[in-house]
Amino acid sequence: MGGFEDLVAEADAADVTGWDFSWLDGRATEDRPPWGYQRLMGERVGRADVSLDLQTGGGEVLAGIPQRAAKAMVATESWPPNLAVAQENLRDKGVVVVADAGGPVLPFADGTFDLVTSRHPVGVHWAAIARVLAPGGTYFSQQVGPDSGHEVYDFFLGPRPPGESGREADLARAGAEAAGLEVVDLRTAELRMEFFDVGAVVYFLRKVIWFVPDFTVERYRDRLRELHERIRADGSFVAWSRRFLIEARR
């Protein structure tokens, strides 16, 4: 392991476009939910006629499934750097990638898709999803749960009261039902996250920008140095993420 300055400089210079976390291999770990979202997503795409993947990031999850919808596959992304990566990753898969503002209006006609998927959406606009789903169509999504990884936030910004995050699974159920969808599956999981050097934390915070929204190395250098010493003493920095899986039908 390098020294503090080398670790931080390396992570601060790393490319964080797209949604590929392979840079963290050997430097951080996060347990995966027991249900296997990508496999389940692939099974549903393989049974679909026309599918839509919302907030696809760099398209890595969609590109990683072997199945294809029978007639057409579409994905949306709103962040320009991720949009370019998604177009590159999904071009050979026959997926049409659409630039989308990420708001409550989706640029598609009513009842277009018999499957809508989304992994870790920033926000979920249930009425828009219900509108573009065909009768009998399915929404299938893995989402970030409440207070996920709050230990990271707490270290840099101080503790905040748990709960009322807007990411509770029961709120997702209520939102889906209010839009006229029937929730047929809802599961939750708590998962261990572990960072083995301070550079891994820097990279993570540069990529997952909502954890510490004003994060820069210079702004938080003193806290990063404290974290470096803590990891050296303890061997790692541990946090807990939360995920839930929701499937709803129109």
Helix content class: 25-40%
Which consecutive residue ranges, at least 5 long each, have pLDDT under 50? none
For the biggest β-sheet, the strand order reads 1-7-8-6-5-2-3-4
Largest sheet entry: 8 strands, mixed
Report strand %.
25-35%
Task: Give the topology string: H per helix, E per strand.
Answer: HEHEHEHEEHEHHEHHE
Total E-strand runs: 8
CATH class: Alpha Beta
Q: What's the N-to-C terminus distance? A: 52 Å
Structural class: alpha/beta
The CATH superfamily is: Vaccinia Virus protein VP39
From the 3D structure, determine the CATH topology. Rossmann fold
CATH architecture: 3-Layer(aba) Sandwich
Whole-number count of domains: 1
Give the helix tally. 9
Q: Compute the gyration radius: what is it? A: 19 Å
Shape: globular
In round numbers, the mean pLDDT is 95
Characterise the protein shown here.
Residues 52-139 form the Methyltransferase type domain. One of its GO terms (molecular function) is S-adenosylmethionine-dependent methyltransferase activity. InterPro entries: 23S_rRNA_MeTrnsfrase_RlmA, Methyltransf_11, SAM-dependent_MTases_sf. This is SAM-dependent methyltransferase. Keywords: Methyltransferase, Transferase. By secondary structure, the chain is an alpha/beta fold. It has one domain (4-249): Vaccinia Virus protein VP39 (Rossmann fold, 3-Layer(aba) Sandwich). The chain contains 9 helices and 8 strands. The protein has helices at 4-13, 37-47, 60-63, 80-90, 126-132, 150-157, 169-178, 198-207, 221-234, and strands at 28-30, 50-53, 72-77, 95-99, 113-119, 133-144, 182-195, 237-249. It has an 8-stranded mixed beta sheet with strand order 1-7-8-6-5-2-3-4, with helices on both faces. Helix 3 (60-63) links the parallel strand 2 (50-53) and strand 3. Helix 1 (4-13) runs parallel beside helix 8 (198-207). The termini are far apart. The mean pLDDT is 95.
